[in-house]
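quick one before i forget lol
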Amino acid sequence: MAKTKEADKNIEEIKKSIEQKKAVLGTAVTIKNLRRGTLAKIFVSVNVPDSVRKDIDYYAKLNKVKVVSLNYPNDELGTMCKKPFFISVIGLMKA
């Protein structure tokens, strides 16, 4: 029960950030902004490739950014964000 509420909270946070144009969608753009140090939090889908996950974990550790693993595959994450494509990685910009 607690995991469901936490997952719903994460999805709501993502949707709110997309509406406010403070979200970055996609692996390449997220890693680019992570290197710059402009991200506050990163959400990763269940089926993100291992190489991408290692890169994100590495840069997140350097910049002290929290990485949250979602329990949704990339196709469902794209649908939840109302996008016609799969999304494996979402980055939230700093305020």
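fyi The domain at 2-93 is CATH 3.30.1330.30 (60s Ribosomal Protein L30; Chain: A;).
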